[in-house]
Design goal:
It catalyses: 3-dehydro-D-erythronate + ATP = 3-dehydro-4-O-phospho-D-erythronate + ADP + H(+); 3-dehydro-L-erythronate + ATP = 3-dehydro-4-O-phospho-L-erythronate + ADP + H(+). Catalyzes the ATP-dependent phosphorylation of 3-oxo-tetronate to 3-oxo-tetronate 4-phosphate. This is 3-oxo-tetronate kinase. InterPro entries: 4-carb_acid_sugar_kinase_N, 4-carb_acid_sugar_kinase_N_sf, NBD_C, NBD_C_sf, OtnK. The protein is 42% helix and 21% strand. By secondary structure, it is an alpha/beta fold. It has 2 domains: 233 residues, Putative sugar-binding, N-terminal domain (Rossmann fold, 3-Layer(aba) Sandwich), CATH 3.40.50.10840; 173 residues, Molybdenum Cofactor Biosythetic Enzyme, Chain A (3-Layer(aba) Sandwich). The strands form 2 sheets. The protein has a 15-stranded mixed sheet, sandwiched between helices. Bound molecules: adenosine-5'-triphosphate and the ligand O=C(O)[C@@H](O)C(=O)CO. The site of the ligand O=C(O)[C@@H](O)C(=O)CO has 13 residues, from helix 1. The site of adenosine-5'-triphosphate (ATP) has 28 residues, from helix 13, helix 14 and helix 15.
């Protein structure tokens, strides 16, 4: 397999978001779960997105995992590797966007890495280094209440600098609007001045096309799906992509079986989607305190779902409001409560699969990562888009047979997302 583009995604929902964007923009793409075992037969593709669960782990662990994935992607032929991070730049002062970007840059020989989380299709834009989410500065958006990485600063030059050893600078919108030549000249000047990363402004797709064209001439970039769009369009324009594929049709073939939704995302979008789902589907709201106290709440959830699932799809949700989340966190600690709830939702997902679920929607990046790992799914083909950033996925090499999944990033999807997803997964 010789690929044109490699990507390392810092969570699984983000990986499927990027894989969806690359597919929509003409690249045959596969999403692997970690570095695949050599025995796994992957289709011939232009791009591979390696999903990792490294957004919220210790920086050293994230760096080790990402650099190993980078070596594997280079061996597969990737001349450019995109580190896919969240379009809301989810991270803390300890990392992991800065440390991983620097490690990948050093592995590739140094230079100034272009960094932009802009993804205009979902309302993420960057202007003068500041990230806006649906028109609100990042620190005023719902991301200020994120359970694992509350974002309190919209100035990404500052955010990235706090996580980096090297200097971080900016490529402003005026430069991006002036075209690829101007961006390249700016990057060369920044490199000479010793900056290791540059936050690039982008407010619309033509900006991302310019950035993608320039990034493709460098070995590494860091960004969200918008930069993926720019890279994919630059590759197709270059004539290096042999054929566009109708692979999505194969990915959409029906799998039958039962259907379920498991949610661990506490984003405002997911909370609203759960309220709307409750109008037409049975929804079990897990009690987070009981989940932390012992396995009884998990057994009760499995029994509740088991009683209903043969009659139609069920929803099991740990998701709670910011106030409830912060109460739990102050009692048990942020990482401990997050981890315990992810373990619980992944056990519930596994039990649902054992009981015949073959169509599964999971809401939340960390939640999805824990569940997909527990289900031991090795890779995914990319099907049709349910909502911007969320495709239908078809398992590759799954021991239990083919399944369809949707891994929904916390903030993505319209209010009827869950029923819309089920309507596309047969
Ligand atoms: N009731 C709760 N109280 C505290 N933490 C919770 C609760 N329910 C879920 N969690 C934890 O909150 C975290 C939510 O993160 P997750 O990445 O799954 O969702 P998200 O951040 O909304 O999605 P994304 O990363 O895709 O944007 C998980 O660690 C989950 O276990
Ligand atoms: O970029 C995004 O917003 C998503 O793909 C994501 O990474 C959320 O976890």
């Amino acid at each position: 397999m010789t690929i044109l583009l490699g990507s390392i995604a810092d969570d699984y929902t983000g990986a499927s978001d990027l894989a969806n964007t690359l597919t929509k923009n003409g690249l045959r793409t596969v999403q692997t779960v970690g570095i695949p075992d050599p025995s796994l037969v992957l289709p011939d593709v232009d791009a591979v997105v390696v999903s990792m669960k490294i957004r919220s782990v210790a920086a050293a662990e994230a760096v080790a995992a990402a650099t190993e994935a980078e070596r594997w992607l280079r061996k597969c032929g990737a001349t450019h590797v995109l580190y896919k991070v969240c379009s809301t730049f989810d991270s803390t002062d300890a990392g992991n966007i800065g440390p991983v970007t620097e490690a990948l840059n050093i592995a590739a020989g140094g230079g100034t890495v272009l960094v932009t989380p802009a993804f205009p299709e979902t309302g993420r834009t960057v202007y003068l280094g500041h990230l806006f989410v649906g028109g609100q500065p990042l620190n005023e958006s719902p991301l200020k209440d994120h359970p694992l990485n509350p974002m309190h600063d919209a100035n990404l030059v500052r955010v990235m600098a706090r996580q980096s050893r090297g200097a971080v600078d900016i490529v402003d919108l005026a430069t991006v609007s002036a075209g690829a030549g101007a961006v390249k000249a700016r990057l060369e000047a920044l490199r000479a001045a010793g900056a290791t990363a540059a936050i690039a402004d982008a407010i619309c797709e033509p900006d991302l096309e310019t950035l993608g064209e320039v990034a493709l001439q460098t070995p590494v970039s860091t960004g969200a799906s918008g930069l993926g769009l720019g890279l994919a369009r630059a590759l197709t324009r270059s004539g290096r992509v042999s054929s566009t594929s109708a692979a999505t049709a194969g990915a959409m073939r029906p799998v039958g079986g039962l259907a379920a939704i498991v949610a661990g995302s506490c984003s405002s979008a997911t909370l609203r989607q759960l309220d709307v789902a409750e109008r037409s589907l049975p929804v079990l709201r897990l009690n987070p305190e009981k989940l932390l106290a012992g396995p009884e709440e998990i057994y009760a959830a499995i029994s509740w779902a088991g009683d209903r699932i043969s009659a139609g799809p069920v929803v099991v949700a740990a998701s709670a409001s910011p106030q409830t989340v912060s109460r739990l966190q102050s009692q048990y600690g942020r990482d401990a409560s997050g981890h315990a709830i992810e373990t619980a939702t992944s056990i519930i997902a596994e039990e649902l699969m054992t009981r015949g679920v073959r169509r599964l929607v999971i809401a939340g990046g960390e939640t999805a990562g824990a569940a997909v790992d527990r289900l031991a799914i090795p890779a995914f083909l990319i099907g049709l888009e349910i909502a911007p950033g969320v495709p239908v996925l078809r398992t590759v090499g799954n021991k239990q047979g083919d399944m369809l999944l949707a891994l929904k990033s916390g903030n993505f999807g319209g209010e009827d997302f869950f029923t819309a997803a089920l309507a596309m997964m047969h």
